[in-house]
Design a protein that fits this description.
The chain is α+β, with helices and mostly antiparallel strands. 25% of the residues lie in helices and 34% in strands. Helix 3 runs antiparallel to helix 5 (295-308).
Length: 309
């Protein structure tokens, strides 16, 4: 009996020891006294359950965060950029070439020619080179507006003033031709004028006359015509003289001799007849050749020949 009682006590003590040991193990797993290299550990029981905390003055836990850092990106800058211009006249208008220096961070450009300084040239790149040519630009004040671009966007708009010069006017020919109807055609070759005129008689020329380069005039006397071609700030002139018209010949018949001419001729004829009669009467008493040498007869013959011819 005594052995049985002792056996029961020992059995109960062993069971209780196992329970205590098991409980201690679970507590150790739930709240380990050991800390990691940061001085803290995970807590699964009690008021700290579900947290990570520090012991012995350790710092509060700060979880690692993946923070996005945007790359540094600068928009282009053309504020200190310099440019140059070149003009080429074609058919009385100008081709304007503009070239500029590289700015900061620019690799493409939007460019436009405008009457307004600083007008936005648009959102699309026109070129990756730093030069552009504008064709057939009329004279006057213009502005080249440029903005530079890169992968970060566009710079501000920068502008350069452009004074497009007037074309060089010229008069290459100015002459005339007589037409079959008696009028005169003035012919000319001139270019690049804003206005054309011929004085006197004609005045300002029409676009058709300018294009054809000719006008019809009908001067009644010798006339000097002046062709004037002008643009603002330039004027050129050339003159040409048209001679007076030649009068047509008079178709009237040959005029008859005057009364005086008839009287003189009749007197010569009568004198010649009288001399011939004298010669006939004197031929009976002397030789004809002797009388032929007579001064009176020679004088008469000369007089007749003069008035006859």
């Amino acid at each position: 009996m005594v052995k049985y009682i002792m056996y029961s006590k020992i059995k109960n003590i062993l069971i209780l020891s196992l329970v205590i040991l098991f409980s201690s193990s679970m507590s150790a797993l739930a709240h380990s006294g050991r800390t990691d290299s940061s001085g803290g550990h995970n807590c699964n029981v009690g008021s700290c359950a579900g947290t990570y905390h520090y012991h012995n003055g350790g710092s509060a836990y700060q979880p690692t965060k993946n923070t996005y850092v945007a790359p540094i990106c600068n928009k282009p800058n053309l504020s200190d950029t310099k440019g140059s211009l070149e003009f080429k006249e074609v058919d009385c208008k100008q081709d304007v070439t503009f070239t500029w220096d590289k700015g900061i961070g620019d690799n493409e450009y939007s460019v436009a020619l405008s009457k307004t300084a600083g007008a936005d040239p648009g959102p699309v790149a026109d070129t990756t080179t730093r030069s552009v040519t504008f064709n057939d630009v009329a004279p006057g004040k213009w502005y080249v507006n440029v903005k530079g671009g890169n992968s970060c966007g566009w710079s501000g708009v920068y502008n350069w003033e452009v004074d497009v010069p007037e074309p060089e006017i010229a008069i290459n020919r100015f002459n005339s031709y007589k037409l079959d109807d008696g009028t005169t055609e003035l012919k000319f070759v001139a270019k690049c004028g804003a206005s054309y005129s011929i004085t006197p008689e004609v005045g300002n020329l029409t676009q058709t006359q300018i294009k054809e380069g000719r006008v019809i005039v009908n001067p009644e006397k010798e006339t000097t015509y002046t062709l004037t071609v002008s643009v603002p700030g330039q004027t050129k002139k050339r003159t040409h003289t048209v001679l007076a018209p030649t009068p047509a010949p008079d178709p009237s018949p040959t005029s008859s001799p005057t009364v005086q001419e008839v009287t003189v001729e009749a007197e010569v004829e009568d004198s010649f007849n009288e001399d011939v009669a004298d010669l006939n009467s004197e031929a009976q008493s002397s030789s004809f050749w002797d009388e032929l040498l007579n001064n009176k007869m020679l004088t008469t013959i000369l007089r007749v020949m003069i008035f006859r011819f």
